[in-house]
Inverse folding.
């Protein structure tokens, strides 16, 4: 019976050597929240699609577990599979058919417009809308570096691009977010 | 200098992004793991006839080897017999190790084929 003390590497070894499905189940339980949350961000909050992609991610992980060389953390490897599954889905479905969050209005989002809401809730809502204006690469870089708390190098591994590209995506994303959320910036 | 200024200016945005990430919280499993496990491919099971068929093939192969190389068989068999009736010599030990190695290899090949 897998316990909390058992490392991911030990569970992976059990799956590979003994085809221990309980061990794989434990890996899924450990990482499902992070993978689903990551995909929910990438799909702009489409929970159903995100969960379908998360299931696909774990099935692909099971089939390809032998190719996992432990060069990265298991969670990072899962994020990479999840991101590739997301990209494959995007290729299959036209962008217009993907359920997107409602279009953000043109122009900067206003803090005053959200006056009845608490500061943090209003900022979170505005941030969600502002994220919609980011390009796919910019949004993916923000998700990997802030939501998944990965380093630039790890994010580059997940996104399959050079570290410099990740940094550029982050810089541009922040510029766009700052422009959209200018009303939330503290006054000097 | 400008970079420092920019970093300071970005502080509120960094904080907002981190707060947003933390606000996501833990997503309850709610049957997700069970759904994944149900979709895993079925364990590879061998047809019932395959294991005895493989054993039979090994037996046929061994028989053919004896038929083709009777001298080798008699040498090995004779060595095994003398091994148990006489004190072992280095050559006997060598032959024994050879037989053990061949048996182990065959068993491993068989086991891996079965898996």
């Amino acid at each position: 019976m897998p316990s909390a003390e058992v490392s991911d590497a030990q569970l992976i070894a059990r799956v590979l050597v003994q085809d221990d499905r309980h061990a794989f189940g434990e890996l899924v339980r450990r990482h499902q929240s992070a993978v689903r949350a990551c995909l929910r961000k990438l799909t702009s909050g489409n929970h159903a699609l995100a969960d379908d992609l998360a299931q696909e991610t774990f099935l692909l992980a099971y089939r390809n577990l032998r190719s996992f060389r432990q060069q990265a953390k298991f969670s990072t490897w899962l994020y990479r599979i999840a991101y590739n599954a997301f990209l494959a889905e995007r290729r299959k479905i036209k962008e217009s058919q993907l359920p997107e969050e409602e279009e953000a209005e043109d122009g900067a989002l206003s803090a005053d417009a959200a006056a009845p809401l608490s500061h943090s809730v209003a900022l979170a809502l505005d941030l969600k809308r502002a994220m919609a204006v980011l390009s796919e690469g910019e949004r993916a870089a923000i998700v990997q570096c802030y939501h998944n708390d990965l380093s630039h190098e790890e994010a580059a591994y997940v996104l399959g691009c050079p570290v410099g590209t990740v940094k550029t995506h982050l810089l541009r994303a922040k510029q766009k977010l700052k422009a959209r959320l200018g009303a939330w910036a503290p006054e000097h | 200098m400008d970079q420092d200024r920019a970093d300071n200016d970005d502080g509120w945005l960094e904080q907002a992004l981190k707060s947003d990430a933390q606000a996501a919280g833990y997503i309850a499993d709610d049957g997700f793991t069970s759904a994944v496990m149900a979709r895993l491919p079925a364990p590879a099971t061998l047809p019932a006839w395959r294991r005895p068929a493989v054993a039979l093939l090994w037996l046929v192969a061994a028989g053919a080897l004896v038929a083709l190389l009777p001298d080798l068989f008699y040498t090995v068999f004779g060595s095994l017999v003398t091994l148990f009736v006489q004190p072992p010599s280095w050559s006997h030990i060598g032959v024994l190790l050879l037989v053990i190695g061949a048996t182990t290899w065959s068993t491993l090949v068989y086991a891996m084929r079965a898996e």
Residues 21-42 of chain A form the longest helix (22 residues).
